[in-house]
Design brief:
Elements: E1 7-11, E2 14-19, H1 23-30, E3 40-41, E4 44-45, H2 48-61, E5 65-69, H3 75-87, E6 91-94, H4 101-108, H5 117-123, E7 126-130, H6 134-137, H7 141-146, H8 158-161, E8 163-168, E9 180-183, H9 189-200, H10 210-222, E10 226-230, H11 232-237, H12 242-253, E11 258-260, H13 269-280, E12 286-287, E13 293-294, H14 300-303, E14 309-313, H15 317-320, H16 323-331, E15 333-337, H17 343-347, E16 350-352, E17 363-366, E18 372-375, H18 386-396
Parallel strand pairs: 5-6, 5-14, 7-8, 7-10, 8-9, 10-11, 14-15, 15-16
Antiparallel strand pairs: 1-2, 3-4, 3-16, 6-12, 12-13, 17-18
Amino acid sequence: MLCEDIEVALKVGAIEKSKNLCRKGQGHFQALFTERTVPCIEGIETSEEKAIAKAAEILRDADSPLFYGWSNSSLEAQKTGIELAKKLESKIDDTSSFCQGILLERVLKGTLPSCALDDVRNFADVSVFWGSDPSNSHPRHLSRFSYYPRGSKRQKGYDQDRNCVVIDVRKSSTSKLCSNYLRIPPGSDAELIEALLAIQDGKMPRFGEKKRIIELATILKKAEFGVIFPGLGLIYSLTNKMEIFDGFLAKLNAISNYKVIPMGGHYNTRGFNELMLNETGYINQVSFKNGMHHGPENDVINAAKSCDVCVVVGSDPLSALPFETAHSLAKSKLIAIDPRKSLTTEAASVVIPSAMYGLEAGGTAIRMDGLKISFEPIIESDLLSDEELLRRIIEAV
């Protein structure tokens, strides 16, 4: 969420005290002192210069390189990475390719209406967390924007002025905080949408507990300003059926005012998607080989099968991706640019340590709602940022 109101006092090797720091932020700051990477070539520690030179050599000899990651890098680093991918005529993809991308693309292209998180705080009377659990994924979401704060129009407090709706397949931490919780079977989101649309058309729903669904439809209908925060639960359930969600939003907006803000899992996923859209007309899954091409054959799942080199920037695909994809990537030559150790850095042919953004390096990023935020380093470091490292690789290549 790129929280910009954090106050932290650091001492050698630890955090002394902090204010406005959630447990995820606490982990990010504490990561300054644990499991940091060192420059390596084939598992042997070396100098930064030699690691960069080796990475450039591998890329010069590559036939089918892939660039992947990006969601935990600054806009400046992402832009430099796209430049390098173009120069090497490689494929480039990011983490949104198999998660929030399908929704982010709709928001960026205007298919789905969206708004700022500050608008949520000031005006929203209904917040719907659909297949998302912000209490764990975005710990300050409820307190800063969507449920507990008092905004310019919402002055009476959450118990009188706001409705929080949770739709999920299990009783999550967020559902325990909100009185309006609807549990649905896995994969039944499309049926729920059809039931809600039927109620709006004056028909009885043919899905689930009818009384609870009618109550939900009434809450949604009476909203003055509603915001839906979709998570991976909704996205995976509506794979290849997202048009149902588009139609549902259109129907809601015929009687009320609803916006959508996807619950991005990394701090600058949207930044990469916006840069790619402006540069190529697509948010991800692009190949620059013999011109420019877009399609699922260029996403990390498929590209991993044929790439001979994969440059991973600020991501851990060997832990996060399906086993078959991780296995394919591990068989290629991996070049990992990352401040912290991971399964990917352990398997990489070349590891290049980078500075941690927001702590050791500054830059800009785009928050999940589209707001561009600049940040400065708070401690001095000799480590280079992703942007500076990628620039050196471009020069060496």
